[in-house]
Amino acid sequence: MADFDGLSALFVNCTLKRSPERSHTQGLVDASAGIMARNGVSVDQFRAIDHDIATGVYPDMTEHGWSSDEWPALTARVMAADILVVAGPIWLGDNSSVTKRIIERLYALSGLLNDAGQYAFYGRVAGCLITGNEDGVKHCAQNVLYSLQHIGYTIPPQADAGWIGEAGPGPSYLDPGSGGPENDFTNRNTTFMTWNLMHLARMLKQAGGIPAHGNQRSAWDAGARFDFENPEYR
Q1: CB atoms inside a 10 Å sphere around CB 142
Q2: What pLDDT sits at residue 172?
Q3: CA 171 – CA 156 distance, rounded (Å)
Q4: Residue ranges of the chain whose pLDDT lies below 50
């Protein structure tokens, strides 16, 4: 059995429902987080909608006209996690407005650098969980996973999982008789995603992250070009 002690994970639930209202997305979060916790991973989680997170693409939106913004305080929890899982519902065939806001605020941190001069999310892994009772799991997942890799997260194989009921109005994941918690396809994908996140996070941590050559923003800004052939820099 692999040893995942020392790894940490953060699940951000982007439901539109404030606590303690039942969140179907939370049901899938609990399944994945439970596997991690049982294998020694330190698990943290929060519902984004329970916090006053301002709209914008800067680390602290109080510096840009907002009277309050809890994102700077939540940033510490994001940066403490080796594994990030963004989870949310489908509405009108797309990610929820809360999911989009979290992606934008993560993007706001993409200019931060780590001690090696790389973007700060290098060496961390990410995945996503999607729930709903209408089509769109793969569309929503590709949007989230593209965004996360773009800002520096490493995406393992099978990094998404989800559940939807029949197309159109119908039961959601945790509703009685929905079949969601018993769905083999969803359970398999959730399990595979969770283990792949843990395996890759452990591999990266043991390796000291992504090798720091050819990807250091600090070195590029200082004039290094890492064998990029351009007459301007010859």
Answers
A1: 12
A2: 87
A3: 31
A4: none
Cα–Cα distance, 201 to 109 (Å, whole number): 20
**Contact (CB, 8 A) for 42 and 77:** no
Output the six-digit token pair for 220.
């590029």
Distance CA 89, CA 97 (A): 10
pLDDT value for 1: 59
Report how far residue 223's alpha carbon sits from residue 213's, in angstroms, rounded to the nearest whole number: 14
Instruction: Give the whole-angstrom CA distance, residue 138 versus residue 72.
Output: 31
Residues in the chain, total: 234
Helix axes 184-206, 24-38, angle to 10 degrees: 50
Tokens 């951000």 map to which residue?
Answer: 12
What pLDDT does 179 receive?
86
What pTM was computed for the model? 0.94
42 DSSP β-pair partners: 8
DSSP of the chain: ----TT-EEEEEE--SS-TTS--HHHHHHHHHHHHHHHTT-EEEEEEGGGS---SSSSS-GGGGT-S---HHHHHHHHHT-SEEEEEEEEETTEE-HHHHHHHHHHHHTTT-B-TTSSBTTTT-EEEEEEEESSS-HHHHHHHHHHHHHHTT-B--SS-EEEEE-SSSS---TTSTT--TTT-HHHHHHHHHHHHHHHHHHHHHHHTTSS-SSS--HHHHHTT--TT---GGG-
